[in-house]
Amino acid sequence: MSVARVPLNIFGIGFGLAGLATAWRVAVRFDLAPHEVSDVLFAIAALAWLASCIVYLRYALSVRGALGRDLRDMTAGPFASLAFITPVLLAAGGIAPYFQVTATVVIDVLVVGIVLLGAWLTSFWMRGGTDIDRLHPGYFLPTVAGGLVASAGAAEFGQALLAEVMLGLGLVCWVIIGPMIVAR
After folding, report:
1. Distances, alpha carbon 70 to alpha carbons 55, 60, 100, in Å
2. pLDDT for 1 beyond 60
3. How far apart are the C-alpha atoms of 3 and 67, rounded to whole Å?
4. Closest by alpha carbon to 75, among 6, 139, 11?
5. Which keywords fit this entry according to its UniProt record (predicted)?
């Protein structure tokens, strides 16, 4: 039985919906929108992220070496980080209002995943796995977006030191990766 290829950018669906839900939650804080809509959007985003995880894992477990090939892919590889970044948004905006301790633990665990995946991808790219002609803004996702989103999530729960470290990671990586993408 042949399994259709599932690209890593499938995680962008939940990421976009989580971003919409987060924007709606900000509007709620300023009394510009009803709270219930943001809850529904977070639930939809969580379902989309979960469905993406299930679909991708089914594919990766069915096709030998698929995950490794996808992570080394010059175009789609950086999108793997959205599997870790999206739940940070979901925890900070969707879980925290109801279960703050749970959200804090989830974010702390995801920060470890973001840092490890970002470090692995960066080391792969630095070892010669990068073709300058194939660089695109998606390369900001693993380290820059991961660092900045994790920083915002940690700050939401009063973890100032973790928030500062992740902000520093995001900004330093932005300064390093930005010129390469612009030069392309």
Report:
1. 14, 9, 34
2. no
3. 14
4. 139
5. Membrane, Transmembrane, Transmembrane helix
Question: Helix, strand, coil: what percent of the chain each, to 5?
Answer: 85, 0, 15
Cα 181 from chain centroid? 19
CB atoms within 10 A of CB 182: 9
Q: What is the CA radius of gyration of the chain?
A: 17
| Residue 84 contacts residue 56 (beta carbons within 8 Å) | no
Model pTM score: 0.90
> pLDDT confidence of 129, banded at 50, 70, 90?
low
Q: How many helices (H) and strands (E) does the chain have?
A: 7, 0
| Cα separation, 47 vs 40, whole angstroms | 11
Q: Are 44 and 20 in contact (CB under 8 A)?
A: no
128 dihedral zone (left: phi>0; alpha: psi -120 to 50; beta): left
User: What are 84's two structure tokens?
Assistant: 């870790």
For the chain, domains (ranges, CATH) are 8-183 (1.50.10.150)
Dist. CA 16–CA 38, nearest whole Å: 14
